[in-house]
Structure formats: C-alpha cells, structure tokens
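step 4 of 6: structure.
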Amino acid sequence: MPQTLAVEFFAPGVRLITLQRPQALNALNTQLLSELAAELADAQADDGTRAVVLTGSRKAFAAGADINEMAERNLVGILNDPRQAAWQAITHFNKPLIAAVNGFALGGGCELAMHADIIIAGEDARFGQPEINLGIMPGAGGTQRLLRAVGKSMAMQMVLTGEPIGARHAQRAGLVSEVTQPEFTVERALHIARNIAGKAPLAVRLAKEALLKAMDTDLASGLRFERHAFTVLAGTRDRDEGIRAFQEKRTPTFTGQ
Ligand code: DAK
C-alpha cells in the first residue's frame, strides 16, 4: 500500500492518483517518487486502465523536490540518486496522463506536471522553477520541457529569476490547456480522462507518441512516424468498428485490437 499517494478507480478505465504529503506540500521525496513510479508502472501494465489523472491538494500540487532530503545528498549521492530511476519510469509512461493542478507546482512539481500530456489548472495554481534560489537549476526536464511549452523568453525569465507564474499566464503561454475554479479542477480532468478512456486505445497510444515526437524530432521524421502510425491503425479492428459505428449511427465499442 502506498503511503504517500491515494489511488481511486473510475469507469471506464480511469485511475486518479492523489499525492499526499500535506506536511511538506507534497514535496517529492524518494518514497513519493518511487511510489508514483510504481503506480504508473502498474497502470501501464493494466489493460483496464486507459487514462490517468494526477493531482495534489488544494494548496499544492507539489512544492518541488524535498529540500531536506536534498540537503543530505552530496555529489556522489546525486550521481547514484534513486530518484533518477523513478523520474525515468514517470517519463516513459505511455498512456494519457492528465495533471489537475491547484496551488503550488514548483521545481520538480512543475516538472512533474509537465510530464503530463494535458494540464488543467485551478485559478490559484502557481507554476515555477525556483531552483536558482537554491543555487541549482532544474534537473528533471525543466529547462527542456518548459522552453518547449512556453517559448524561450518566458522559460528564461522563469528559470533565471525563479519567479512563478499564475494559472492564466500559464494558459496564455501554452503550458496549461484549461483554467477552472479550484474546486472543479479534478472533476474537469476526470471528465477529459473519461472521454479519452472511451476512445480506441491503440489510436490514443500512437497519437500520443506522434505528438510527443513533434517535440524532439525534425518535421520530415515526425511526418514519417505519423504516416507509419496511421498505416498501422488502418489494420486494426477498432478502426473498422469506428467507421461502422458512424455509418450505423451508434456509439462505437472499442476493444483495443
Ligand atoms: N521540500 C521540503 N519541505 C517543503 C518544501 C520542499 N520543497 N516546500 C515546502 N515544504 C514544507 C515547509 O518546510 C513547511 O514545513 P514545516 O516548516 O511546517 O515543517 C511546510 O512544507 C509548509 O511550507 P511553508 O510554511 O513554507 O508554506 P508557505 O505557504 O509559507 O510557502 C512555498 C509555500 C511553496 C512558497 C514554500 O514552502 C517554498 O518556497 N517551498 C520551496 C519551493 C522550492 O524551492 N521548490 C524547489 C525545490 S528544488 C532531481 C530532479 C528534480 C529535482 C531535484 C533532483 N533528480 C532527477 C535527481 C528538483 C529540485 C527542486 O524541486
């Protein structure tokens, strides 16, 4: 049983993971990161899980890496850091991941949110990379993913000053797809997850992979991947079912084949 997470299941195929270290504003210590990585691995292996929502509390999605734990690590400790493996597992999660962010998403917390495919933010959410204030810099993808999400100028400003931005600002910049009242953030994320969970799983998986390719490859390679994935889907039963259901004016029943 995880100690730092709560996990709930919703039909059809949605898993809600809530970070629960309220005493430290969900700071990401080794235990929390390991439990999160294990939960995502379980969700990935489970055919019944089609989408995952990740959230924190009203006050904090996550206030970054656990600074007290960081204080105990020297350079050797950092090179052999077990949190590296946990971050790798989170990075390789291949099902749809939606972050429902209220309150602080700082440092590793902002980086964790950026691992999600979609971010829904409450009006009071604050996104920031304050590592510079500790004499360090982002280490879990912050410099790379933030720049791709918000562009060079704003990423530079956020990383070099450490100052956070609010939810509306993050939405205008493209980091966040929707802003809600804080009490509806999780509900809205679950609604989107349920919608995605009803789609053909192979199409969702390949569409996600193709979209992520756009972030790290040139246009010609991305288009090649897209064409290949599109061709693969043309041979699936779910594609036949989707088209037949349209013609028969009914809701499709996808099986993942
Ligand atoms: N770590 C540990 N404890 C934290 C914490 C954190 N990041 N953030 C907050 N807390 C604790 C506070 O110490 C306090 O504990 P008590 O004093 O009550 O025992 C409690 O949570 C409530 O916090 P505050 O009293 O400070 O609450 P406020 O509302 O006044 O302020 C705040 C909220 C979020 C503005 C403030 O707590 C704050 O500035 N927190 C630190 C934010 C921060 O600097 N985050 C970046 C950390 S560096 C890596 C990958 C990534 C990283 C590292 C390694 N590898 C791949 C190896 C990432 C690094 C970072 O994220």
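step 5 of 6: annotate
 - The CA atoms of residues 133 and 162 lie 6 Å apart.
 - The first helix runs from residue 30 to 45.
step 6 of 6: archive
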